[in-house]
């Protein structure tokens, strides 16, 4: 639907005649600065490099002007040749986000975008200022969207001045969730409820929790497989899921904060304050309560799932729920995320999006998609 | 994520402080002409009217310049006051699509959009010409996307010149399907397969076809409920589903045509040529073959579903399939559509979108979403 026609080879059907522009496509240049060159940031850079020729043919020149890590950063020196050889031309200096943003913005009126792939609250504190200066911001970092309400409102207000703030990858990575909600609302639909499973880890644990093995053994397996955070309590607490719920609520215009979400942690209170090793050593204390929850679900003929729910009466919760075996959430694939929007138009049958909602590549793709959407809206500049 | 902040009331949580622009939003005017004021077109006009204030606050002025039906059309007289009272100021004249397009385009360099809500192939024949003249085109009409390949290629080539062609609502109405595929490809993913149930009618029939009642009784019930087309063969033939598959294949850059799709019609050959009444009178001739299919599915321990499939080896089919009871398609809600993308990134667990995929309101919302996406990309003009 836009100019980035894919170039897939197809054994039987030849690739469509490449639709060459009959006039020069609108040329746009976008200066990009990446903050947080970790797993997601690196995957994004790989994706952007792979797409560069295609983007250029469609009229979009991306210019990577710098990368900032927590302690150091490099800035390109604005020489196109050097920029192309940026790996060799790196000059690392102490990180300074104000200087970094100023450099990416430049002084020639170009379009500029900062991509925050850190998980750092200090970076989020800069968004409103950057947007007010006309710098677009894209991030998979949930801290702005689910952080203090005042800061969020300041970011939204700043983004209304022209620069755009996008954060599709904050909820279920590359799955089309935030944009889908945005489109529903922008076309005049009304959100009645959101229900979902926003944690692949918790989905996997609930799917596998069938009474055959103690819950702690499943947690240990998930930990060994890399499905959990280094400290599994970061998943089991439900806090990360609650953040996603807050982001969706605010997207719908509801002034929800993290404190408003009724979060049921799977971590018993007496294990919450331990250090990570001590927690892992006492993991089997999760077994009895989880077995009891499973027994309740089975007595009701249902399944146990970890569900985030939000309705327009202000109720927001993240908890274990007993669902009927016929419920769509009962049949998701092991680590799948799922989001279900109930709206005025999608009332009897909600709209549902399902699939993997974590991982560097799909998260980076969600960020990349946001970048493309911003690029579509750029006016031609030299 | 854009300026069209929703204004939902929320009993507990006050609506977010409205983020008023601190600078004037970029002002864009878009002249719109609607072709085909049927159920979808009328629903769209209602949605656009309801959104007008919100759009205007975000800097987008929509100006409805005319409506064309198959035989007659009206054009506004370019007087803003009259335009606001267009219901009363209608002057119907014989339909002339060239004149209509010229009128909407105007001669003052404004942005112009034609929305084709007809189901008319003659309208689709105009798209390439309109796009070449700089008129954006949005449609839920499947005839261009699934029609002759040469015409499709001409449309794509014309749209590369600057004017944009969007058609989200051609596949599963308002569900985010075409854009989701577009985003996957544009961010560098590779499509490996599409599988789906693209007909709410056939999904309902398969879901209800449990051996309790003859298949013909279910078709009669669906017909009476308005779930089928006036002639149920338009659903049972699978042709409409095949058109959607062709649209998605071409979106992925594969040169598929309707003839390439292996379509299994549920209508026995001897009933295909009858007139509608004669067909309905002989509907029970569907019962034996459908009962046999169900018996096969049950013998295999599976469920019978009507599935569209496409893979990158060029195989495209629309047919009854026996799926394992654990398959996601086995658990869809009665009339739900479902689309599953298997890609390089979404390989083990595909990306799935599910929900109602037909109806005037959700189809119109899909069209409206396309309009908004085009509006986002418009440069400011007087």
UniProtKB/TrEMBL annotation, chains A, B:
<dbReference type="InterPro" id="IPR022697">
    <property type="entry name" value="HDH_short"/>
</dbReference>
<keyword id="KW-0560">Oxidoreductase</keyword>
<feature type="domain" description="Aspartate/homoserine dehydrogenase NAD-binding">
    <location>
        <begin position="36"/>
        <end position="167"/>
    </location>
</feature>
<comment type="similarity">
    <text>Belongs to the homoserine dehydrogenase family.</text>
</comment>
<feature type="binding site">
    <location>
        <position position="142"/>
    </location>
    <ligand>
        <name>NADPH</name>
    </ligand>
</feature>
<dbReference type="GO" id="GO:0009086">
    <property type="term" value="P:methionine biosynthetic process"/>
</dbReference>
<protein>
    <recommendedName>
        <fullName>Homoserine dehydrogenase</fullName>
        <ecNumber>1.1.1.3</ecNumber>
    </recommendedName>
</protein>
<comment type="pathway">
    <text>Amino-acid biosynthesis; L-methionine biosynthesis via de novo pathway; L-homoserine from L-aspartate: step 3/3.</text>
</comment>
<dbReference type="InterPro" id="IPR005106">
    <property type="entry name" value="Asp/hSer_DH_NAD-bd"/>
</dbReference>
<feature type="binding site">
    <location>
        <position position="229"/>
    </location>
    <ligand>
        <name>L-homoserine</name>
    </ligand>
</feature>
<feature type="binding site">
    <location>
        <begin position="36"/>
        <end position="41"/>
    </location>
    <ligand>
        <name>NADP(+)</name>
    </ligand>
</feature>
<keyword id="KW-0028">Amino-acid biosynthesis</keyword>
<dbReference type="Pfam" id="PF03447">
    <property type="entry name" value="NAD_binding_3"/>
</dbReference>
<dbReference type="InterPro" id="IPR036291">
    <property type="entry name" value="NAD(P)-bd_dom_sf"/>
</dbReference>
<dbReference type="InterPro" id="IPR019811">
    <property type="entry name" value="HDH_CS"/>
</dbReference>
<dbReference type="Pfam" id="PF00742">
    <property type="entry name" value="Homoserine_dh"/>
</dbReference>
<keyword id="KW-0486">Methionine biosynthesis</keyword>
<dbReference type="GO" id="GO:0050661">
    <property type="term" value="F:NADP binding"/>
</dbReference>
<dbReference type="InterPro" id="IPR011147">
    <property type="entry name" value="Bifunc_Aspkin/hSer_DH"/>
</dbReference>
<feature type="domain" description="Homoserine dehydrogenase catalytic">
    <location>
        <begin position="176"/>
        <end position="372"/>
    </location>
</feature>
<dbReference type="GO" id="GO:0004412">
    <property type="term" value="F:homoserine dehydrogenase activity"/>
</dbReference>
<feature type="active site" description="Proton donor">
    <location>
        <position position="244"/>
    </location>
</feature>
<keyword id="KW-0521">NADP</keyword>
<keyword id="KW-0791">Threonine biosynthesis</keyword>
<dbReference type="GO" id="GO:0009089">
    <property type="term" value="P:lysine biosynthetic process via diaminopimelate"/>
</dbReference>
<dbReference type="InterPro" id="IPR001342">
    <property type="entry name" value="HDH_cat"/>
</dbReference>
<dbReference type="GO" id="GO:0009088">
    <property type="term" value="P:threonine biosynthetic process"/>
</dbReference>
<dbReference type="GO" id="GO:0009090">
    <property type="term" value="P:homoserine biosynthetic process"/>
</dbReference>
<comment type="pathway">
    <text>Amino-acid biosynthesis; L-threonine biosynthesis; L-threonine from L-aspartate: step 3/5.</text>
</comment>
């Amino acid at each position: 639907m836009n100019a980035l026609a894919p170039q897939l080879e197809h054994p039987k059907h030849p690739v469509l005649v490449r639709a060459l522009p009959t006039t020069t496509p609108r040329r746009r240049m976008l200066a990009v600065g990446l903050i947080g060159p970790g797993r997601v940031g690196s995957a994004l850079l790989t994706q952007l490099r792979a797409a560069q020729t295609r983007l250029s043919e469609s009229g979009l020149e991306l210019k990577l002007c710098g990368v900032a890590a927590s302690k150091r950063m490099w800035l390109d020196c604005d020489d196109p040749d050097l920029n192309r050889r940026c790996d060799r031309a790196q000059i690392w200096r102490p990180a300074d986000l104000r200087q970094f943003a100023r450099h990416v913005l430049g002084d020639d009126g170009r379009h500029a975008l900062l991509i925050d792939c850190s998980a750092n609250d200090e970076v989020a504190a800069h968004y409103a200022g950057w947007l007010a200066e006309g710098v677009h911001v894209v991030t998979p970092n949930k801290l702005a969207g689910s952080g203090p309400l005042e800061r969020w409102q300041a970011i939204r207000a700043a983004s209304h001045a022209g620069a755009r703030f996008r954060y599709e990858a904050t909820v279920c990575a590359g799955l089309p969730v935030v944009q889908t909600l945005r489109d529903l609302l922008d076309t005049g639909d009304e959100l009645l409820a959101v229900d979902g499973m926003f944690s692949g880890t918790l989905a996997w644990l609930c799917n596998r929790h069938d009474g055959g093995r103690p819950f702690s053994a499943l947690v240990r397996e998930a930990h060994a497989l890399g499905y959990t955070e280094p400290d599994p309590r970061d998943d089991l607490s439900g806090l990360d899921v609650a953040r996603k719920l807050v982001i969706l609520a605010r997207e719908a215009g509801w002034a929800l904060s993290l404190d408003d979400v009724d979060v049921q942690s799977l971590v018993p209170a007496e294990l919450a304050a331990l250090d990570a090793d001590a927690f892992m050593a006492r993991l089997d204390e999760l077994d009895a309560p989880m077995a009891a929850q499973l027994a309740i679900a089975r007595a009701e003929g249902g399944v146990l799932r970890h569900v985030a729910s939000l309705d327009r009466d202000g109720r927001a919760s993240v908890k274990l729920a007993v669902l009927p075996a016929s419920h769509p959430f009962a049949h998701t694939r092991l680590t799948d995320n799922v989001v279900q929007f109930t709206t005025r138009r999608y009332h009897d049958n909600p709209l549902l999006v399902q699939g993997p909602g974590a991982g560097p590549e799909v998260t980076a793709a969600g960020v990349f998609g946001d970048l493309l959407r911003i690029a579509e809206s750029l006016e031609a500049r030299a």
